[in-house]
Design goal:
Elements (H helix, E strand, L loop, with lengths): L3 E6 L3 H11 L4 E6 L2 H11 L3 E5 L7 H10 L8 E5 L14 E5 L4 H13 L11
Parallel strand pairs: 1-2, 1-3, 3-4, 4-5
Length: 131
């Protein structure tokens, strides 16, 4: 089975570490970005199966990154979980395709369910299932 690639985007190194520690044991390959510009460049280079994206980022907001991803023909299909401490931000993401929202602090079971569901909805290069 091919490991699923997940791009985690957050400017908080603790969040990057915790999410990486949570997902690696489940067989995920993790790549990280610490600002919006790096996030878009990594998405273009890595073509992840899922992006976990913070909203408040340096250089380019998560919302701006997501709009660029949705406008890019190579990336538009990639599922994204937007995570923000500001739950009110959810309304800005409701109508974007392949996009889900989680307010911080989030429930770890809800997080896992979203990751499993969204990654399972993408096709694996070798046809295998995720997890």
């Amino acid at each position: 089975m091919t490991a699923r690639k997940i791009l985690i985007v957050d400017d908080d190194p603790d969040i990057l570490m915790v999410l990486g520690m949570r997902l690696r044991p489940e067989g995920c390959e993790i790549c990280v970005a610490r600002d919006g510009e790096e996030a878009f460049l990594k998405a273009k280079k890595e073509k992840p199966d899922l992006i976990i994206l913070d909203v408040l980022l340096p250089k380019m907001t998560g919302y701006e990154v997501l709009l660029k991803i949705r406008e890019d023909k190579e990336l538009e299909h990639i599922p994204v979980i937007v995570i923000s401490a500001k739950g009110i931000m959810e309304k800005f993401f409701l109508d974007l395709p392949h996009t889900e929202f989680l307010a911080k602090p989030y429930d770890s079971l809800e997080f896992s369910e979203k990751v499993h569901r969204l990654v399972a909805s993408t096709s694996s290069p070798d046809g295998s299932s995720f997890f």
